[in-house]
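@channel sequence for tomorrow's demo:
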Amino acid sequence: MRAVFIPMSMFMHILSSAKTYRSALRSGCNCLLVAAAMSGSPAHAQVAGQSKAPAPAASAPLDYARELRTLTPMAQQGHAVAQFNLGVMHDFGQGVPKDAAQAVRWYRLAAAQGHGGAQYNLAGMYYEGLGVPRDLVRASMWFALSAQAGVPGASKNRAIVTRSLTPAQREQAQNLARDCLQGKFQGCD
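structure tokens (generated this afternoon):
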């Protein structure tokens, strides 16, 4: 599936507790970029055999430059959702040139904070070898972690990837996922 655009108003109940997000709302940010973390990453959906992109949730054209100006400082301040959204923008060339290495950078930062969607997309990057060397062990690890975070499709993708691993690699992926979880996502990648 493709990244979708969700009007900011749909997230107000989630974002209202974060001062920075409230200031983003006051500054006129109409929407956040949100990858379809609940249904899988667009470029990485092929792992699960999906290929069609859903229609954008909002029909009005999106001002990518404005979103980039709003999200960048928030991401730099450590907000996982903003980091994830910048990863999506770089991953799919939405308002910025496509840049897999930058997408991985932002996904890693959000994944290190336990963001399931970022973990899922990072797994996809490892699976496809985009912005990182192809590494099925790491892909399996990140899919396992995103599955534990409740991201739909992650368990299925992990099972698909795991079929390509040797028993030793499966054990390694399980150990990496366990260690990553126990270390609260620090030093996982």
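heads up for whoever presents: Confidence is low (pLDDT under 50) at residues 1-55.
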